[in-house]
Amino acid sequence: MALRFSARFTGLLAALVLAASATAQTFPAKPVKIIVGYPPGGSGDFLTRLLGDEMSKNLGVPVVTENRPGAGASIASDAVAKSPADGYTLLNSTNHAINKALYKKLPYDPDKDFAAVSRAATGPLVICVGNDVPIKTLKELIAYAKANPGKLFAAASGNGSSPHLASVQFEAAAGVKFTTVQFKGGGPAAQSLIAGDTQVMFATAPTVLGFIRGGRMRALAVTTRLASPAIPGIPGAEEAGLPGFDSSFSFGLYVPAGTPAPAIRRLHEAIVKSLAKPEVREKLAIQGMDPTPSASPEAFDAENRAEAPLWERLVRESGARVE
Fold first, then answer.
1. pLDDT score recorded for residue 5
2. Whether the predicted pLDDT of 16 surpasses 80
3. Considering 36, 177, 282, 297, which has the largest number of Cβ atoms within 10 A of its Cβ?
4. Contact in structure between 189 and 155 (CB atoms under 8 Å)
5. Cα–Cα distance between 92 and 51 in angstroms, integer?
6. What pLDDT score was predicted for residue 17?
7. Could you tell me which of 211, 205, 185 has the C-alpha nearest to residue 131?
8. Are 126 and 219 spatial neighbours (Cβ–Cβ below 8 Å)?
C-alpha cells in the first residue's frame, strides 16, 4: 500500500512539474490585458499604456490597456479578482491596503484575491499653493497653517487617494490642520486652486507641472525627503524645512490569486526588462515618476505587507470612509 501511494505521489509530482514547464514555455499564447482603475490621462493610465507597449515587445503578444475607473479603483480590482487565474489579466493598482481601510465593504478580498507581480513606478507628490496666497516657501506654509488652524483649504483628488493621504501625513508631521475639500480627480482640484477657491494642493506631477511652468500656481516642495531627479527645480521636504516627512505614490502589477507561478515569473521578467530601457525611464521622468521594479514577485508581496499598516493608519487618521 505504501509503495503504491509513493508511486502515485511521484507520478502526480512529475505531472505537476511537466505542467509547470509547459506553462513556462507556452505562456503567453494570446493577448494580455492590463486593467487600470483610473481614467485616461492620469499617471496610472500613462504608466499602464507605456508599460503595456514595452511588455508586448518582450512577450511577443499584444498587451492592451482597459480603463475601468470608479470607486477608488475598486471596480477594476473586482474585475481582475474575478478573472481567470491564467496570467492573461493584470491589474495596475496602488497598495490594496488603502481600499481595505477606506471601504466598509468590498466585493473582493484585498488580502486573498490577488498575487503580486512587481512594483512598476514610484513618484513624489508636489505641494502647491495658489498665486493669491502670500506664501512662497514650505516653512511659510507651515507657519501660517499653525497660526491659522483650519483656515487654509486643501484641494484633494478624492477620499483615500495618494494626494489626500500625503496631505494627512503632512498635517501630522508638521503639526498643522487644513480644511480638506474633496474633488472628483486631480484636474478639478487643480482648477479650484487656480480659481482661488482652495489655497493648498498635494498633487501628482503630471496634474500640476504644466500649471506651475505656466505661472498659474507655485510649487513649494515635493513630498519625498530629497528632491526628485524626475522633477528638477523643486526642493525635497527636508531641504524645504520639514525633516522626517517622506511620502510618495506608487503603482504595481497584480494577477488573480492562483495564477501559475511560471506565468507570474514571465510577467515579472517582462516588466523588469521594459523598465530598464532608457527611453522608458525618460518617458516616466517626464511624468514625474521613477521606475522601481521589485526584485521578485515575492519581494513585491513582502513590500506591500510591510507598507500596509502605514496606509491603514493614514486612512484612519484622515477620517475618510466610504460606505
1. 45
2. no
3. 36
4. yes
5. 10
6. 46
7. 211
8. yes
Architecture of domain 124-248: 3-Layer(aba) Sandwich (3.40)
- With beta carbons less than 8 A apart as the criterion, state whether 74 and 158 touch: no
Question: What local confidence, expressed as pLDDT, does residue 296 receive?
Answer: 98
pLDDT at residue 4 is higher than 80: no
Q: Tell me which residue has cell 505661472.
A: 215
Q: What span, in angstroms and rounded, lies between the C-alpha atoms of 201 and 12?
A: 58
Under DSSP, the state recorded for 322 is B
Rounded Cα–Cα distance for residues 74 and 17 (Å): 35
Distances (CA, A) of 102 to 3, 15, 184, 263, 312: 54, 43, 16, 31, 8
Quote the CA–CA distance of 294 and 63 in Å, as a whole number: 20
Residue 196 confidence (pLDDT): 96
Q: Over the Cα atoms of the chain, what is R_g?
A: 22
Q: Could you give the count of Cα atoms lying within 13 Å of 271 in the half-sphere of its Cβ? A: 30
Q: Is-same-fold flag (29-122+249-318; 124-248)?
A: yes
β partners of residue 182:
156
Nearest to 34 by CA among 101, 98, 100, 83: 83
Strand duo 63-67 + 32-36: pairing:
parallel
CB 92 within 8 A of CB 48: yes
**What is the domain class of 29-122+249-318 according to CATH?**
alpha beta
List the one residue out of 128, 125, 137, 126 whose CA is nearest residue 198: 128
Widest CA span of the chain, in angstroms?
Answer: 85
Mean pLDDT of 269-279: 97
Give the C-alpha separation, 301 to 258, whole Å: 14
Give the model's confidence band at 20: pLDDT under 50 very low, under 70 low, under 90 confident, else very high: very low
Spatial CA neighbour of 55 closest among 84, 3, 92, 83: 92
Fill in the DSSP letter of residue 64. Answer: E
Dig out the grid coordinates for 124 from the structure. Answer: 513624489
Q: How confident is the model at residue 88 (pLDDT cuts 50, 70, 90)?
A: very high
Give strand pairing partners of 32: 63
Distance CA 145, CA 152 (A): 7
Q: What are the sequence ranges of the domains in the chain?
A: 29-122+249-318, 124-248
